[in-house]
Design brief:
6-stranded mixed beta sheet, 375 residues, alpha+beta
């Protein structure tokens, strides 16, 4: 039986309007609700918590920099999607306190056992606090625990100011340091694209810890990064323009299939580079570059790939830094996706980090990428 949908959206940033949308959703035929809202709404956290706790249907989703609806980008407002099925949700909280792989595996396994390993379901959406430190360790362990037979699409929630606040929705209220796994009733098909090419390199990651690259070629990482960009481009770093320049030159790691996995530098401190996503020590990285046409074409290819499947719903996790790079041309990327996605319902978010299956099948954290999922 086809999935029926309740759909509602608002361009308003008021909690009263969101409350009206939730009331309409709860009066509909929906049995579970996906809610996506924009950071610029600046809802009162206490009032939003109360609203979530009074919702009489399972509710999930998160707060993102911006929300996508069809071919439009909402800088403020909200989208609510109501599903006829009651979706199963699993919350993995307090991830920052998990200190080693054994503890992480125990937490995941205990949850999977309670869920009877999702009773044969193998397709999931994933919403998570982007400032949680060990998301990659989690998805690696989840992939192993589920015997590799899973399909995932997801993205990190949060705010452009990179200050951690509760940003994941639940019936218990807003959550932080949490990863939410939503079981889908139908098979999920995904496509991943980024559109970045090698600019300079490779460089040896001679010292690194998780998301922080400390040295490249045995020299301070930012020193190498800065010198390369300054010598090869017209850009010159100052005390306050790091992100303005770094958004143009991410790092790339080649995987076993020779595909580039992007890592987005978001700040420099002590001559180190802090990225969104881990970079292994002794790996080889490249500085990358792109242009508007290449980025938009990559998103178009991803949409065409997903359109080959006869599905009803499409969700997009598009990296916030793609919008920052494209600026006023970002709407061309949204138009390209909407034009080639044939599903009647298309929605999504601008995210900090995107999660999907790589070519090898493993679940991976991507940066500066477009992930499109349909079911």
């Amino acid at each position: 039986m086809d999935t029926e949908l309740f759909t509602w959206h608002t361009y308003s940033n008021t909690l009263d309007d969101l409350k009206q949308g939730l009331l309409l959703a709860q009066k509909s035929y929906a049995k579970s609700l996906l809610m996506l809202t924009c950071n610029q709404n600046n809802y009162c956290e206490a009032a939003l918590n109360s609203l979530l706790k009074t919702c009489n249907l399972p509710i999930f989703g998160g707060i993102y920099p911006m929300v996508i609806l069809q071919d439009r980008l909402l800088e403020q407002g909200a989208v609510i999607i109501g599903f006829k099925e009651k979706f199963d949700t699993s919350y993995f909280s307090r991830l920052q306190l998990i200190s080693n792989d054994d503890c992480l595996e125990t937490m995941i396994t205990e949850t999977l056992e309670q869920k009877n390993y999702f009773s044969g379901h193998d397709s999931f959406l994933m919403f998570y606090d982007a400032l949680t430190n060990n998301v990659e360790d989690f998805i690696d362990c989840l992939f192993e625990c589920l015997d590799h037979n899973v399909n995932v699409a997801g993205g990190g929630a949060g705010n452009l100011d990179l200050i951690q606040r509760p940003c994941i929705f639940s019936n218990q209220g807003l959550l932080s340091n949490t990863l939410l796994l939503v079981t889908l009733p139908k098979k999920l098909n995904t496509s991943v694209a980024h559109g970045w090419d090698i600019f300079q390199g490779p460089y040896l990651v001679s010292d690194a810890q998780n998301q922080t690259v400390k040295s490249l070629n045995y020299q301070p990482a930012f020193k190498v990064y800065n010198q390369t960009i300054s010598a090869k481009t017209d850009h010159q770093f100052t005390e306050d323009n790091f992100l303005d320049i770094a958004k143009n030159y991410p790092l790339g790691i080649k995987d076993i299939n020779n595909n580039l996995i992007i890592r987005d530098p978001i700040l420099t401190e002590n001559n180190h580079l802090k990225c969104v996503g881990n970079i292994p020590i002794n790996s080889m990285v490249y500085l990358l570059k792109t242009d508007n046409e290449t980025l938009i074409s990559s998103a178009k290819r991803a949409a065409i790939e997903v359109a080959n499947f006869d599905k009803k719903i499409t969700i997009v996790f598009d990296c916030i830094s793609r919008m920052l790079y494209l600026g006023e041309h970002f709407n061309e990327e949204l138009l390209a996706i909407a034009e080639h996605c044939s599903t009647p319902v298309l929605f999504g978010v601008l995210s900090f980090g995107e999660i999907a299956n790589s070519q090898s099948g493993a679940i991976r954290l991507f940066n500066k990428s477009t992930i499109i999922g349909s079911w």
